[in-house]
Design goal:
The chain has 197 residues and is α+β, with helices and mostly antiparallel strands. The protein has helices at residues 10-13, 17-23, 113-120, 129-133, 139-145, 150-153; strands at residues 6-7, 28-32, 38-49, 77-82, 86-92, 101-109, 165-169, 178-180, 194-196. The chain binds a DNA duplex (13 and 13 nucleotides) through strand 4, strand 5 and helix 5.
DNA sequence: ATATCGATTATCT
DNA sequence: GATAATCGATATG
């Protein structure tokens, strides 16, 4: 554990999702498993989802049971289930009472690669780059690799070093960040709210 | 490498 | 009853 490494505080997330999505690139997602194993990955792709002014956002039509976390305090996990089989992870943004979040779309795997492969049910006998990349490239893939589910993780505090799902800053700075339109949405497709390294 | 398609169910209209 | 912030398989170039 690097001594420069620290959990990112709640204030970081109490901002506009567009700002947070960009700022999260290069940060670490850490997962502590009940077994004691630790998984980690560096964030390389995110998307921002806003509130009432963003038709593609789950929060667009107001608060429901499903999206309640988005209206709560910043820095908490919003995990939703979609397409009948996939989970996706977001972190809540904006001050409490206002909706917004950042979707995690891809990570560069760091620690715990063999466990990620097991969680993904992927064989790594040939450690091809494509095979390794497929562990955590995609919002539902990274959730499966990190064993993130709605029942276990929705609403979880992600700013406490003691949490088993934490965001950390280790001082790494990304080189070039690019912006583009978001993927897989039909409603507000033209907003440049996707960020990647 | 790119395109198309089926899977499978919680959530909302 | 329709849709979905996706993925993996299959087909084709």
């Amino acid at each position: 554990m690097n001594e420069e490494q620290h959990a990112i505080g709640r204030e970081f997330f109490a901002r506009h999702p567009r700002v947070v999505a960009r700022a999260l690139l290069g940060k670490l997602l850490i997962r502590r498993l009940p077994s004691g194993h630790v998984l980690s990955g560096r964030i390389v792709e995110t998307e921002a989802y806003l509130g009432a002014d963003d038709a593609a956002a789950h929060a667009a039509a107001g608060k429901t049971q499903r999206n309640a976390v988005l209206f709560g305090p910043p820095g908490h996990a919003y995990v939703y289930f979609t397409y009948g089989m996939h989970y996706c992870l977001n972190v809540s943004c904006e001050p409490e009472g206002r909706a917004g979040c950042v979707l995690f779309r891809a990570l560069d795997r760091l620690a715990g690669i063999d466990i990620m492969a097991k969680n993904r049910k992927i064989t790594l006998e040939s450690r091809s780059t494509a095979r390794l990349r497929s562990l955590t490239s995609g919002p539902a893939r990274l959730c499966q690799a990190f064993a993130i589910t709605r029942t276990n993780d929705n609403g979880k505090e992600m700013t406490s070093p003691a949490s088993d799902l934490v965001l950390m800053d280790d001082g790494y700075r990304t080189k070039k960040i690019r912006a583009a339109t978001r993927i897989g949405i039909t409603k507000s497709p033209d907003l440049p709210l996707r960020f990647y390294v």
